[in-house]
Specification:
Number of strands: 15
Oligomer: single chain
EC number: 2.7.2.3
Shape: elongated
Helix content: 25-40%
Family: Belongs to the phosphoglycerate kinase family.
GO molecular function: ADP binding; ATP binding; phosphoglycerate kinase activity
Bound molecules: 3-phosphoglyceric acid
Structural class: alpha/beta
Distance between the termini: 8 Å
Strand content: 15-25%
Binding site for ATP: 201, 323, 349-352
CATH class of the largest domain: Alpha Beta
Organism: Geobacter sulfurreducens (strain ATCC 51573 / DSM 12127 / PCA)
CATH architecture of the largest domain: 3-Layer(aba) Sandwich
Mean pLDDT: 95
Number of helices: 15
Strand order of the largest sheet: 3-4-2-1-5-6
CATH topology of the largest domain: Rossmann fold
Length: 395
């Protein structure tokens, strides 16, 4: 059930779990606030309905310790600016002082609790901590899609302590788009996978083999596949222990009639460095001592062509080391190709959404997931604990 199906929010203390785990620079400035903007519809809905809104989130991995650099203060401040309304930051996420603050709230007030990961109980999914965290609130809403793959106290155990639990609008959007792409896709369905390593994507690959019509592979992970197919890829990243797996994945895809695209050229460099000497070469001609750090122009043309017929595209992982300008063109060119396609386009997983934002093409992508690990786990075909518990307790 979703927040708009709850009959009475007025004057109720509504605990909303959000994921404000946003990137900060060395001065604690937020460099990217998509995750905060993404939950505004849910927060506004609750405030407009006259609820007393209590927000909880984690930020970073403080590992049960109270560390100032992981304070929710910058997020609370940014939210306050986006809402045009004061957002009080509680000094903690549990305890009597916080409880008093919550009890003193009026309809339409909003407060942000301090980082829930300042307590070990959060990651341990500890029930006692969860009970304290509920802070006497009456309704629980989870709109923290990006942390729904973690069975943590504020995501899972806490639901036991509420008579009413629901999901927020971000969660609804994420699940709707994911279902459109992966459960009832309009075909052809094309998956684009990138990123450094095959090892992090084995289960994703396995699951995609049962669903997609085409797989396009770029990024470092392509080179384990190319090595498996007999190419000499110089000093490019290859996971030797996964060559056999890559070979059998490729064979399985062929057996199933899935079109499997790998790079045909690359931007090679003499070292892993933004100042490295570089050249575009075919995969057959990567110099022995050089490494491929981006896909080349012929590959961009090939991949773009392969996307032409697509009706649904799902993309995770960059095509090269796009943080370095010299190796960013392939990823940005693919952003353009995906953005200009007529397909339903869904992009997710940490690095990929930052590439899309940097390329300035985000408006043309049908949906950019706020999830990193959570998006990948959905792609793996897993049920996320945070979503499962809402389905079971959607009372
Ligand atoms: C994310 O950024 O993917 C989520 O906020 C989860 O963070 P975590 O990987 O530290 O659990």
């Amino acid at each position: 059930r979703y927040i708009d199906e709850i009959s009475e929010l007025k004057d109720k203390k509504v605990f909303i779990r959000v994921d404000f785990n946003v990137p900060l620079d060395e001065h604690q400035n937020i460099t990217e606030d998509t995750r905060i903007r993404a939950v505004l519809p849910t927060i506004n809905f609750a405030l407009d309905a006259g609820a007393k809104v209590v927000l909880a989130s984690h930020l970073g991995r403080p590992k049960g310790e109270r560390k100032p650099k992981y304070s929710m203060a910058p997020a609370a401040k940014r939210l306050s600016r986006l809402l045009g309304k004061e957002v009080l930051l509680a000094p903690d996420c549990i305890g009597s002082e916080v409880r008093q603050m919550i009890d003193a709230m009026k309809s339409g007030d909003i407060i942000m609790l301090e980082n829930v990961r300042f307590y070990e109980g959060e990651e341990k999914n500890d029930e006692n901590f969860a009970r304290e965290l509920a802070n006497g609130c009456e309704i629980y809403v989870n709109d923290a899609f990006a942390v729904s793959h973690r069975a943590h106290a504020s995501v899972e155990a806490i639901t036991k302590f509420f008579p009413v639990v629901a999901a927020g609008f971000l969660m609804k959007n994420e699940m709707n788009y994911f279902e459109k792409a992966m459960q009832k896709p309009i075909r052809p369905l094309v998956a684009i996978l990138g990123g450094a390593k095959v090892s992090g994507k084995l289960e994703v690959l396995e699951s995609l083999l049962n669903k997609v019509d085409k797989i396009i592979i770029g990024g470092g992970m392509a080179f384990t596949f190319l090595k498996a197919l007999g190419y000499n890829v110089g000093k490019s990243l290859v996971e030797e222990d996964l060559i056999e797996t890559a070979r059998s994945t490729y064979a399985k895809a062929r057996e199933k009639g899935i079109k499997f695209y790998l790079p045909v050229d690359c931007v090679a460099a003499d070292r892993f460095n933004p100042e490295a000497e570089t050249k575009v070469t075919t995969i057959q001609e990567i110099p022995e001592e050089w490494m491929a750090l981006d896909i080349g122009p012929a590959t961009v043309a090939l991949f773009t062509e392969a996307l032409q017929s697509a009706k649904t595209i799902i993309w995770n992982g960059p095509m090269g080391v796009f943080e370095m300008d010299a190796f960013s063109r392939g990823t940005f060119a693919m952003v353009t190709a995906v953005a200009n396609s007529y397909a339903l386009t869904i992009v997710g997983g940490g690095d990929t959404d930052s590439a899309v934002h940097r390329a300035g093409e985000y408006a043309k992508i049908s949906y950019i997931s706020t999830g990193g690990g959570a998006f990948l786990e959905l792609l793996e075909g897993k049920k996320l604990p945070g979503i499962k518990v809402l389905e079971e307790n959607g009372k």
